[in-house]
Amino acid sequence: MRILPTVEFPEDLKRLPRADLEELCKEIREFLIESVTATGGHLSSNLGVVELTVALHYVFDIGPDKDRLVFDVSHQSYVHKILTGRRHRFGTLRKTDGLSGFTSQYESPYDLFHVSHAGTAVSTALGYHLGRLHAGKPSGKAIALVGDAGIGAGMAFEALNHAGALPDHDLLVILNDNQMSIARTVGALVRYLDKLRASDRWSDLKRDINRALETIPVVGTPLANWLPRVKEAIQHYVNPGVIFEELGFRYFGPVDGHDVHRLISTFRDLRDVKGPVFLHVITAKGRGYEPAQKDPSAYHGVSSPKKAPAEPTMVKGVAPEAPPDTRPCHKHFGETLTALARKDPRIVAITAAMPSGTGLSVFASEFPGRFYDVGICEQHAIALAGGLAAGGALPVAAIYSTFLQRAYDQVVHDVALQSAHVVLCMDRAGIVGGDGATANGAFDITYLRTVPRTTLLAPADLPEMERMLAFALGHDGLVALRWPRANFRVAPLPGNAGPIALGRSARLREGEDLAIVAYGAVVPAALEAAEALRAAGLDATVVNARFAKPLDVAALEDLAARHALLVTVEDHALAGGFGSAVLESLESPRARIVRIGLPDRFVEHGSRDDLLKRYGLSAPQIAERCEAEARRGALK
Asked: Among 234, 356, 557, 616, which is disulfide-ready with 621 (CB 3.0 to 4.6 Å)?
C-alpha cells in the first residue's frame, strides 16, 4: 500500500510511524518527477528538500497561529504544498488560474507570504514573530529556510545582524546548502561554506566539550558556567561556523539533509531552544533523479512538453502569415554583446546570479576576466557598475526587470546622479508567464523614466536589438533596454530597419483613421492588429516608439494632429508607463488618446500568450479595442 495517498495535511503526516518516512520521501520524489516533468516547473530544488520538508512538518506544528515556515524564494516549496492539501492540484502547476509555483497566502493558509525574490525570508520571519508579539497573539517558532545563494544577499545579512541582537526572541534559520542557486553559487561565502561542510563533527564536539567540563569534579560546572571564554577560544579554533555565533546565533551542523531520521532528531533537539538558532543542512539539488543530479542548473526549471502547433486561426477574417524565424531574446543579446566586446575592450558584463537566464554565459566563457557574477546582490551589481564606469570601463548590467526593482536606490544614487555611463539590459520585462506576480517585469518604465539623465528604449525585433545595444554603448549616461522572456523575429519588421537616433520613433505603416503607437515587444502585435482593422474598414498608422524617454514628441504631435484617435500599446503597467508619458507630452492634443496596457493590479501566473489575451495585448484584442474606440468616437 502506498503511503503518499494517505497524507493530505500535516496531521496525517504526524500519525505515520517514523519507519514509514523513508518510503514516503521516495514516493514524494516519484510524484514530483512525474508531475513536474509533465507540467513544467522547478524540479531540482524541490527534489533536494524532500526529507528536510517532511522532517519540518513532522516535528513542528506548521500552520495558521502555530509555527510558521517562511521559504526564501519559495520555488522549493512544492513538497510543502504536497503536505498541505494541494497535491491534487499539481496538474495545474504554474498554469493560468492554476497552482502557483511559489508560496502564496492567497492560495493556502499554510503559506505566510507570496514571494519569489531571494534574501527576504529571515527579515519577514523575524518580522512576523515580532508582529505577533506586538499584537498580543501567541507566536510559535518562526522558521526561515534559506539557500546558500540567498544567504549571501545583503538583505539576509542585515536580517541576521538584527535577529542576533534579539536573544529573547525565537527564530530558527535553516541554511539549505546545496552549493547552487540557479547556477553554481559564487562569492567568498562559498569558500566559507566549504569550510563548514568539512567540519560536520562540530555539533557533536561542542556537546562533548560541555559534557566533559561538567563531569570534572568540583570545578567542572563552574568552568562550564563561568569560563565562557575558554569555550569560546576552543570554538574559534575548531569551528569555522563561528561567524554565525558572532552574529548572535547558536550554530548547529552541518547535518545531512537527506537523513530524515537525523533531521527529525535535530529538530526535536532545537524545538525548545530559545533565542536565534542557525542550522546548517547539506543537501543535493536534484536528489533522486539522475538527469537533475548530473545537471542541476538545466533542471532547476523544466518546461512542459511541447504541444503540436495549432492550426492557423483567422483574425477578423484575415489569415495570418506563416510565423517568421525567431529566436530567444536573451540568447541573441548575449551573442551580440560578446561580438561587440571583441571590438571594444572596455566592455564588461555584470549579472546577479543569472548568467544563463540573461544570455551572458557565452560572454563569460569568452571573456572570463571581464565578467562579474555578483550573486543575488542586485544592489551591489548596480553600484559596482557605477564604480566600473567611473574607473573607465563600459559596464553592461543584465538583470531581470523584477529584480532591478531591488536596486532602485543604486540606479538613482550610484549611477544616474553620478552621470555614469552604464547600460542596463532588462530581461523578463513585461508579462513573464508561469512565475507570476513576483516575476512579471511590469514596472520598470515607471520607476526608471522619472530618473534624470536616463534614456529608455526597447527593441521590437532582433536586428533592432543589435542596433539599440550599439547605440546604448555609444551614448552617455544611464541607458536602459527592455525585452521579454520570448522569441523575437530574426528579420526586421517591415519598415523597421532604420538607424537608431536619440528620441526618434519609426513609422511602420501609414493610415488615415487612427494611429497606434506601440513600445517594444508589442509592436508586432500592433502591426497585426492594423491588418485586421483594414479588413474591418479602418486604416491605421503604426509607429514603433523605440524610446520611452526621451519621447519623439514631434512625431506624436503630428500623429495627434492628423488622426482622431491615438492608441498607445505597452507590455507594462499603465500607471506611469509609456502611455502615461505620451499623455504628459501632449498638452492639448486634438486626438482622443486611449492607452492599452496592464491594469493597476499584480498580474497572476499563467502562460504569456494567455495573459496577453486576458489583458488585451494580443493582436486580436488590440484590433477589437481600436475598432470599438474608433466606432465610439465616430458616434459622438
From this structure: 616
Per-residue pLDDT at 195:
55
For residue 89, being part of any structural domain is answered with: no
332 and 463 co-located in one domain = yes
Q: Which domain holds residue 132?
A: 63-80+95-199+240-285
Order across the sheet with 565-573: list the strands: 506-509, 540-544, 514-519, 565-573, 592-598
Contact between residue 389 and residue 442 where contact means Cβ atoms under 8 Å apart: no
> At what angle are helices 50-59 and 21-39 packed, to 10 degrees?
130
Q: Between β-strands 326-328 and 487-489, what pairing exists: parallel, antiparallel or unpaired?
A: antiparallel
pLDDT tops 60 at residue 43: yes
How far is Cα 590 from Cα 607, in angstroms, rounded to an integer? 38
Label residue 235 by pLDDT band (50, 70, 90).
Answer: very low
Together in a domain, 467 and 572: no
Helix (H, G, I), strand (E, B) or coil at 351: strand
pLDDT for residue 307 is more than 50:
no
| Nearby residues of 214 by Cβ (< 8 Å), 6 or more positions away | 220, 221, 224
Q: Which three cell numbers stand for residue 234?
A: 576552543
pLDDT for residue 324 is more than 90: no
Nearest to 565 by CA among 604, 531, 596, 519: 596
Separation of CA 188 from chain center: 23
Catalytic hit among 285, 287, 509, 608: 285
Q: What is the DSSP string of 577-594?
A: SHHHHHHHH-SS-SSEEE
Catalytic residue (one of 81, 94, 95, 406):
406
Residue 208 lies in a domain: no
Rounded CA gap, 91 and 385, in Å?
A: 43
Mean pLDDT, all residues of the chain: 87
Q: Is 406 a catalytic residue?
A: yes
What Rg value do the Cα atoms of the chain yield, rounded?
A: 28
Q: Are residues 279 and 335 in the same domain?
A: no
Question: Tell me, what CATH number does 135's domain have?
Answer: 3.40.50.970
Provide the 10 A C-beta neighbour count for residue 195.
Answer: 11
Q: What is the pTM of this model?
A: 0.80
Task: Out of 29, 51, 378, 507, pick the active-site residue.
Answer: 378
494 burial level (CB within 10 Å; 0-12, 13-18, 19+)? exposed
Q: Tell me how far apart the alpha carbons of residues 623 and 460 are, in angstroms, rounded to a whole number.
A: 19
β 326-328/371-373 pair status: unpaired
Total structural domains in the chain?
A: 3
Amino acid at 607: S
Q: How far apart are CA 542 and CA 532, in angstroms?
A: 13
pLDDT in tens, 437-485: 888 999 999 999 999 999 999 999 999 999 999 999 999 999 999 999 9
Phi first, then psi: what are they for 523, rounded to 5°?
-60, -45
Is the CB of residue 57 less than 8 Å from the CB of residue 65?
no
Q: What confidence score (pLDDT) does residue 214 get?
A: 61
Q: Residue 62 — φ and ψ, nearest 5°?
A: -80, 120
334, part of any domain: yes
Beta-strand pair 506-509/487-489: unpaired
What HEC string does 83-145 produce?
HHHHHHHHHHCCCCCCCCCCCCCCCCCCCCCCCCCCCCHHHHHHHHHHHHHHCCCCCCCEEEE
604 assigned to active site: no
The set of residues, in sequence order, having a beta carbon less than 8 Å from that of 222 and lying 6+ positions away, is: none
512 is catalytic: no
